[in-house]
Amino acid sequence: MGKNRMIQLPLWAGIVIMCLPILICTLYTYPVQDDFFNTWNVSMTMREGHTAFGAALLMALKGWTNYSGYYFSLFLTYFSDALVQCDIGAIRCCQFVMALVFYASVFLFIRTMVVKVFRYEKEKSLPVIFLFFIQNLKANNPYMHSSMEERGGKEGWREREQVREREREREVS
Fold first, then answer.
1. pLDDT tens across 82-111, in order?
2. 8 A C-beta contact, residue 131 and residue 15
3. SS3 helix, strand, coil % of the chain, rounded to 5?
4. Is residue 68 within 8 Å of residue 74, measured between CB atoms?
5. Which of 19, 29, 46, 166 is the most exposed place for a label (fewest CB within 10 A)?
6. pLDDT number for residue 146
7. Cβ(151)–Cβ(133) below 8 Å
8. Which helix (H) or strand (E) holds 49?
9. Pairwise CA distance, residues 102 & 25, whole Å
């Protein structure tokens, strides 16, 4: 194994480890609110004679022109609704696949930007992608980028808890 491959292996492992929590969470999704409505709409569109693909495309086009800018995701949602009809296992599988597609598209987008725009060598682009995933992880977790003092320290936490306890006592009495 070459030196470059030995360097890339931990970076790949890091990217996979950072993506795992979201991928695992997709296995615990269940239908709520608009999932039932979307499934009903797609079913009605299929009863008009459209295939599952055609109904999903038609419903996604309506969504694109009316209220949403999530183009590919909206199509995948309607298409999965047409196929699985609110089956919990199938919904979880579709969410897992959608998360994989999302992470793959982010990876390919960043890699293309780094290689084509910034003129990095393809083999050396992985550290930049790894740094993006680290920064994204850090940006989405308030406890990773703020110190205990910025959050009020331990004393600040105790004071906030005491205020909440007093408010609860007032509500009860």
1. 888 767 787 888 888 888 888 888 888 888
2. no
3. 75, 0, 25
4. yes
5. 166
6. 47
7. no
8. none
9. 14
